[in-house]
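Summary: Need help interpreting a holo structure output

Steps to reproduce:
1. Submit the protein chain below together with the SMILES for zinc ion.
2. Request a joint structure prediction with the ligand placed.
3. Inspect the structure token block that comes back.

Expected: a single structure record containing both the chain and the bound molecule.
Actual: see attached output.

Input attached:
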Amino acid sequence: MHEKDVKFLEDAFKKYYFEHFDLIHTPKNPEMREFGYQKFNSGMNRHISLKSDKELHLMLMKNIPSDVYCSNAKYSFPNLPMAEKDWQNADLIFDIDAKDLHLPCRVSHTTKKCSICSSVFSNTDSCPQCNSTKFETTSLLCNECILGAKKEVTKLISILTTDLGIYSENIIVYYSGNEGFHIHASVPEYEKLDSRHRAELVDYLTFRGAIPETFGARTNFTKSTFPDLDDRGWLGRVSRAVFNSKSNKQKISKQIISDGYFSFKKKIESLQQEIGVKIDPNVTIDVHRIFRLGGTINSKSGLTKMRCTDISKFNPGLDACFIDESDVTVEANCPVSFKLKNKKFGPYQKERITIPKYAAVYLLCKGCASVV
Ligand SMILES: [Zn+2]
Ligand SMILES: [Zn+2]
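--- attached output ---
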């Protein structure tokens, strides 16, 4: 990124951090956490120990990071190298990202930046300027993608509370600041789990590796022993997905039996897409990761990782956009339009425009503009 763009973004981020300390807090037991941060055009600084909100705020003002992270794990010595930290336990964390939902709308809000000549384009597989097929892709905010991700969050919370008995007050949902949601669960019974056990939990939540026998099938089955629609956990969820209503059960059961075991096995496998929760397995399994800190800005968008108290009503472009509205002139090259604070921007074809600072920050973070 160009020096003057970095300077512009750092000034905007600094102003945000200075004015919004009320949104930025260390998690529980800060003295046991590892913190880290990145600056624009620079690598990761890790193994930092911060003991209070005050120390965190000082760090933000001193360094003006592009991104700030904190471990879900708690350690005896968080600032020592990994092997010497003495891991104690870790919050359960789930990451739901719209890009993993592969919705058909994605192509319409994805921009591509040529690695050779920096042209920005969309809808073609090679650069219209130099024909290069090397490019980086960036996706802009999309309402359908956010709705899809919200649906997965609701599915996840329903399983965490009903199947695993986690109280909803111990589950915190954050908008990631870009295209997804982070769900943090702080429950003593689960905090001690190592990666291997977390992987089993991931299999359960994503409905991976389910076998037809669990749901009443036998290699040579002649009699229906399928679960009821109101059975608890996956039994009921599978039954509801297969039969849809109680009145269909007898008829569809007969059909399943006549189609045979392997056809039912296929059906169970295909259900994973439909009823399994689409979490990123690596995030939940990793117990040493540092994770974006709530209240801080995501440099992929300039939006804030925000706590959502009512996810159904949460509107990222409005509720997570805290940069001010002062006019800024930029050279914009963004083939896709986007909406922030209920205002539509773009598309822009290599043009000089004056827009509110929050939109300029967003475009710069997306690599689709430069300050003039
Ligand atoms: Zn090119
Ligand atoms: Zn979309």
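--- end attachment ---

Reviewer comment: The radius of gyration is 24 Å. The chain has a mean pLDDT of 95.
Status: needs-info
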